Amino acid sequence: MVAQGTGAGINVPDQPQWEQKRALYGQSMHHIDFSAQLPRSERPSVTCVLPAYNEAGSLRHLIPELTEYLKKFSDQIELLVVDDGSRDDTLAVVSAMLDHYPVTLLQLSRNFGKEAALSAGLDHADGDVVLLMDSDGQHPFEVVDQFFHHWHEGWDMVFGVHENRSDESRAKRYLTKLFYSLLSRSAEIEMQPDAGDFRLLDRRVVLALRRLPERSRMMKGLYSWVGFSSKAVPFQPIGRITGSSHFGLSKLSALALTGFTSFSNAPLRMWMLIGAATSVLSVLYALIIVIRTLIFGSDIPGWPSIAAGIAFLGGMQLFSVGILGEYIARIFSEVKARPLYLVSNEISFRKQRRPEQQPAGEEANDA
Predict the structure, then answer these.
(1) Strand residue runs (E) in the chain
(2) How many CA atoms lie within 13 A of 247 on its CB side?
């Protein structure tokens, strides 16, 4: 339930209102009627999910400003901060704001990564509309106006797209463009290049995302996979409030690998074709050797070329085995079926949550 403390000056919705929504959306997560859509209120309840890793300095400024700004759109606001194993003062900063702002802190038991933190936020979000933003303050508030405008027009998902990446290195821009180009050509879905996690989701999109059980996640791909009507809004990120980015090249590379293994079989098919082509060429080369031996009556010298060929083919085999291993590792992760995240603590400006289906993650106390 999205209830609000008196310090924030926000109304508390009646319990029957939530019961009506539960009846409309369905009692079971496996039998949700996505064609059943609530009338879009002029002032819907809003949950803003803020995944955070060592962002205490930014949250100290972001929470008051964002709370005040969202009052333009709703009387029922919740800022859901997902602490992804932070080692700074995130807990203390958010706890100090509970009596003054509509904040809930979902503290994960360790650092599970941004994709898991976003999933935890979606699992615990109760609003008619869910807004996803970064905790570093780089997402401009003004774009949120366009998000709500398009949502009232009937779009189920509205997302921000970077207008340009001039603030990034040339290598990062090139690799990002190459990644989206390759994935769009080979994947079963079409992803918008330069789209991020800055987006607004209608509640039925959130319920659809909750039904996806995979542990290896690339949220940008899952947003596209669930479908629904989507609208892109160009924007330019602003500077961070404090600190520097925690999402380095290694994490971006791992996320790209997850994207390929989760949404495309192209690497496996590519190496199957390479193997078939190599076999055909090997047979043709063997026939050439046999024919020349029969004609000239002697073997063809060339041990260095043979050794080089063997080394080349051995390297190709090891590389292809590595690709196969990545897919097997994903399968192994899914088969183990461990929770996507564990919640060690939840503190909130409100005392009780809206009763709803069990989230994909598990509470640490129940694990």
Answers:
(1) 46-52, 77-83, 103-108, 129-132, 157-162, 195-202, 230-235, 342-348, 362-363
(2) 18
**Per-residue pLDDT tens for 10-61?**
443 444 443 444 444 444 444 555 555 556 777 888 999 999 888 888 888 8
pLDDT by residue (tens digit) across 284-298? Answer: 777 777 777 777 666
CATH number for the region 6-246+339-363 comes to 3.90.550.10
Bridge partners (DSSP) of residue 162 are: 235
Close Cβ partners of 298 (under 8 Å, ≥ 6 residues apart) = none
Q: What's the mean pLDDT when you consider all of the chain?
A: 74
Q: With 0-12 CB in 10 A as exposed, 13-18 as middle and 19+ as buried, what is 186?
A: middle
- Proportion of the chain above pLDDT 90, given as a percent: 6
Distances (CA, A) of 116 to 1, 111, 151, 334, 361: 22, 9, 26, 14, 9
Other CB atoms within a 10 A radius of the CB of residue 228 amount to 15
CA distances from 43 to 11, 68, 72, 75, 259 (A): 12, 15, 9, 7, 36
Distance CA 127, CA 4 (A): 12
Report which residue type is found at 182: L
pTM confidence score = 0.67
Strands 195-202 and 129-132: antiparallel
Q: Where are the domains of the chain?
A: 6-246+339-363, 266-336
175, 139 contact by CB (below 8 A): no
Q: Indicate the DSSP class of residue 238.
A: P
Question: Cα–Cα distance between 260 and 210 in angstroms, integer?
Answer: 22
pLDDT number for residue 259: 63
